Fold these 2 entries.
Entry 1:
Amino acid sequence: MLGQIAAPRFRVDVPSAMTLRVTTTAEATTVAVRGEIDLPVLGRLRARLGEEIDLAPRALVLDLSQVSFCGTGGITELLVAASEAHVSGVPFAIAADGRAVLRPIRVLGLARVLPIHGSVEAALAWLAVLPRLRGSGSGRA
């Protein structure tokens, strides 16, 4: 009986469950993500983060405080963004305080790899100190 069920002959487009808001100041650009980071939105997220990194802001904060779901592809995008920002010389931080983002990062052991902060304010404060931290280590042998 199951073999007789035909697949629908039309495509169903599911509306994106993710929105992006970009805020730019003299100090940093913040990309705020709201909703779900799953397979259908990964390309959009990657493109937007790539565009912002290409603009070479003084610093870039990815605000994930309003994310309700983050799949494995989303975690991969966080790693890609951190890597691309590093290669481009753009200081980068992630603001996240919810289980949807923090739990997979902790389970995968990525907390030491990704610059995670509990709020946008904490991320901005860390980014403001980062040049001094990097400068203090350069004179050591």
Entry 2:
Amino acid sequence: MTTIERTARAASLASQAAVKAKDRSAWVALFAEDGIVEDPVGPSGFDPEGVGHRGHEAIGAFWDKAIALTESIEFRFEDSFACGKEIAFTGLIRTTIGGHVIDAEGVFTYRVDAKGKIAALRAFWEVDRAVATTRPA
């Protein structure tokens, strides 16, 4: 594994740890100034226009809408593939919110810049499929 591949893996794991710890400041600081979060990719309730959340202020606002209100978030990834400055994970993200559990199964990618900051976090999952998994915690 190359140094940049190790950097992509380290940045992605740091992102997941900050989310699990509910540490907004640490999470936002992992991103490049012009970094982008697309979670999910395309239009959604979090991003009606489907353009993503670009820059620290927008990424922080995404946190406030999508992560801050959760009781817990678990990353249950089955596998990962580090290639160059990117890494892709397959599996699911389990979210507990409002006493209910939701599983978003998909592919989750992270790309780092030359400084090791996250330039892009992209989550490929289908809202309807995730909603269909909703069950009491």
